[in-house]
């Protein structure tokens, strides 16, 4: 139930449920004896911390979740990598962009080893790494990540909404590099899909006049 509510961003309800679960876990056994349960708690509670502006607590919770995940399933298990992916996001939200990028690059290499270069998670990780180079001003470096994840031969491997988000992020990079024609082409492609989704899913998508990226972020959860 907590996972479902988390997807709908009902963070306060999530917090109440997962704290009850945590109290139950403590009655059963300590973390090292039932490591599969505690990582779920720490991962989920980290998102409620972020929603309440507690980025540092969110990072700590994710680190503990990843530690226990490694004990339970190993460092390259999908759940462990998923937790670390969340931690990279939390680091970014805390303003720790360098640390976030470092974590994201480690995750990318691990995912490539596990599932290869043509997979939804691999391509999404490339997109994340590329976007993290932007605030660091490393525009030429990030081109590789976006070109890789937007390769037409790989589009079958992930959702069109995720591709649209990556294209939108890449368009900002192209604009900063002065490549206006390419910027226009990328935006023309993604805005058509965005407008279609806004009509089909008005209950899920909310436009922000000050931040066009918001809708593309929401689209990836459809």
UniProtKB/TrEMBL annotation:
The lineage of its organism: Eukaryota, Fungi, Dikarya, Ascomycota, Pezizomycotina. Gene3D superfamilies: Tetratricopeptide repeat domain (1.25.40.10). InterPro entries: TPR-like_helical_dom_sf. It comes from the Eukaryota. This is TPR-like protein.
